Amino acid sequence: MNLNKKILAFILCICMLLSSIVFAESIEDESREYSTEYEIYRQMAQLIADTYIDEELTQDEVIQNGISTLLDGNEEMLIQLLKSTFRGLDEYSEFYTADEYREYVNNLNRTFYGIGLKLTDSNGYTEITGFVEENGQAQQSGFKMGDKIVAVDGADVVGRGAEYVRNLIIGDVNTTVNIRVMRGEEYIDLIGIRTEVKQETVTGGVLTGNIGYVRIRSFGTDTANEFADVVSRFENSVTRKVILDLRDNPGGLVSIAVEIAKMVVPKGKIIDVKYRNEEKNLTYYSELVKPELQFYVLVNKNTASSAEILASAIQDSGVGKLIGTTTYGKAVIQQAFTLTNGSVYKLTTGQYITRNGSRINGVGLKPDYSVENYMEKIDTSLYSKPDFENRFTLGNNAEAVKAAKERLYMLGIYNGSMDNGFFDESFQSALKVFQENNHLSPNGVLDIATQIMLDRQFARLEKEVDRQLQTAYTMFGGKIEDLY
């Protein structure tokens, strides 16, 4: 990264300003602790100030001169100092280079760089089932619906699954990726060009029993519009009971959380925002006269920031109840400041207080119904039995092959058909992957050693029982068996 002299000087001023604040505060607060290395540096600076020939030189000037000399011509050191400076304030203030901030925003908006293919698992292959953009770059590059991806940049991906293939395809914008597809009986090599692809931050639908389900993964720039689109489907189906899933939502843009709250929370306060300068304090309000939807909101320890704003507004207004575990407890707000070279620093400048006046920073929201999910062992008796006496190869048909397919599927390696015991090429490819991962001979033969290793790993598998979702669903009148 190239920083011109003006930017260097500007950022250095920020460093000196922050360091001077720290020095000033240290005079008033002797209990503040610094690292051992910094204390040694500070002591040395005082010794220099006391004994150097220039009696007017102060400790602060020695420290500032040392920092300035260290940074001179050393841009990477400057970046590290800035990161440490902001990180030392609190766990949320942060300095980003231009590239880092772009990645942060992309993650928030669930934007990545792919080639615009819609992929699904199909009988051991990853099949192209559509395109993000009709007649876009992907189709112009020669990809067609029904193509089965067999290799990405030379790596065999048969049996690996669509998610694995998707992660291989993702990369830097405007770069290329070599993909081999199987079209009928023919293998074709194509080149994809990575462009911006955006995933939805909101998903949802109507469950059995006319109960709506909405999951918000983060609060990005388009999240409010996506939420409105999903909710509009409920209105068409006369759905008024909604399960809102905010679990593992790290937050995002406060303004977007407020915008969504205005769609569902009855008239009144949403949150108060308090700043250091009281003149900047503000209150967000909802003007919704008659809310149409009733909520159960799913939350957990990773529900944070803007997600807590929305959850608290729903809880405090009485339009819904929280189900799950106590939330993260991040009720401070960061303001982003952009420098002319694209670098950005986020600084904690305010805190929010919930509709009912609660201060939840470091505390979190307590659910109305405390419910923990739990893990349970897979019932192996429900699956086919291995053989442990014979070996099986391509073309064989046996219950032991069906058992291996089921186990590989549960381990996330095989995605093909499990309704038969036929040993086909897609199963063989998945078997090789398992063998490679477990230091077995990757010969694609279902031998006794492979069967034993498969069964051992399968017996250790656990699955999560989503008691939180089940609780919300049953409280709305649904039956657990209809969820699955």
Task: Tell me what the structure shows.
There is one protein chain. The protein is of the alpha+beta class. The chain is 36% helix and 24% strand. It is built from 14 helices and 21 strands. The strands form 5 sheets. Strands 3, 4, 5, 6, 7 and 8 form a 6-stranded antiparallel β-sheet that branches. Strands 10-11-12-15-16-19 form a 6-stranded mixed β-sheet, sandwiched between helices. Helix 2 (36-51) packs across helix 3 and helix 8 packs parallel to helix 9.
Set down the secondary structure blueprint.
Elements (H helix, E strand, L loop, with lengths): L4 H24 L7 H16 L7 H13 L3 H13 L6 E3 L1 H11 L2 E4 L2 E6 L2 E7 L5 H4 L7 E5 L2 E2 L5 H8 L6 E8 L2 E8 L1 E4 L3 E6 L3 E6 L6 H14 L4 E5 L8 H11 L3 E8 L6 E5 L7 E6 L6 H12 L2 E5 L7 E7 L5 E11 L14 E2 L3 E4 L21 H12 L14 H13 L10 H13 L1 E4 L1 H9 L9
Parallel strand pairs: 11-12, 12-15, 15-16, 16-19
Antiparallel strand pairs: 1-18, 2-9, 3-4, 4-5, 5-6, 5-7, 7-8, 10-11, 13-14, 13-18, 17-18, 20-21
The average pLDDT value, as a whole number, equals: 88
- Rg over alpha carbons: 29 Å
Look at the helices and sheets and give the structural class: alpha+beta
Query: Multimeric state of these chains?
Result: single chain
* Stretches with pLDDT under 50, minimum 5 residues: 1-7, 15-28
